[in-house]
Amino acid sequence: MEFKEVYCQNCKKVIGRYNIKFYNDEKINELLKTTHSTHIKNGHQVNIRKFVKD
Ligand SMILES: [Zn+2]
Fold it and tell me: What percent of the chain is predicted at pLDDT more than 70?
């Protein structure tokens, strides 16, 4: 299965992991603006990276 992993470089942790089957880029961007907005507001560097798990 393939996931998109949302990683905060400032908090040094994965703040979300989303199965690409159910979450497209648009949906993930939406989550960044809502669920994960506190990191963005605090000026944290948030990256999205691919995560593959069998
Ligand atoms: Zn953060």
Answer: 100
